[in-house]
Amino acid sequence: MKQERAKILHDQVNLTLTNKPVADFRIQDKMEVISIRLKQVGHTMIQHCPDSRELSIALTKLQEARMFAIAAMAIHQDDIDFPGEDTRGLIKTGEGRRIDEEEKE
After folding, report:
1. What angle do CA 27, 75, 63 make, to 5 degrees?
2. Contact 99, 93 (CB under 8 A)
3. Fewer beta carbons within 10 Å, N or C terminal of the chain?
4. Distance between CA atoms of 88 and 90, rounded to whole angstroms?
C-alpha cells in the first residue's frame, strides 16, 4: 500500500473511531430528532408489514441508518448548520455554548 493512501486511511480511522463529546446542545437536539423520526417509521412498518424476515431486515436497516446519521453528526460537528442563526463572529467555548469573540478578550 502506498504511504500516501496508508496515511489517509490512518487519518480516517483516527477520525471515525474516536469518541467525540457533543460540543453543542443543539447537535444533541438534532440527534434526538433523527431518533424520534426513525422510531416513527419503525412503528409504522410494524403496523403495516407482515411479521417476516423482510420486516426484520428493514428494522435493522433503520437501526443502521440511525447509527450512521448520529456518527455523521458526531464526527462532523463543525459542519452542522443551524438555519436562522447568525454564527458569524462567534466561537465555540467547548462548553456547548457560543460567545462573541469580543467577549473572550
Report:
1. 80
2. yes
3. C
4. 5
All three cell numbers of 63, joined, read 437501526
Task: State phi, psi for 92 to the nearest 5 degrees.
Answer: -80, 140
How big is the CA angle at 69 (ends 79 and 96), to the nearest 5 degrees? Answer: 50
How far is the C-alpha of 12 from the C-alpha of 4, rounded, in Å?
12
- Amino acid identity of residue 59, one-letter, is L
pLDDT, tens digit, 9 for 90 and up, residues 51-95: 999 999 999 999 999 999 999 998 888 888 888 765 554 445 455
Between β-strands 90-92 and 98-100, what pairing exists: parallel, antiparallel or unpaired? antiparallel
Q: How many CA atoms lie within 13 A of 57 on its CB side?
A: 3
Residue 51 φ/ψ, nearest 5 degrees: -65, 110
What's the mean pLDDT in 87-104?
48
CA angle 93, 95, 98 (to 5 degrees): 45
E-strand stretches of 47-105 = 90-92, 98-100
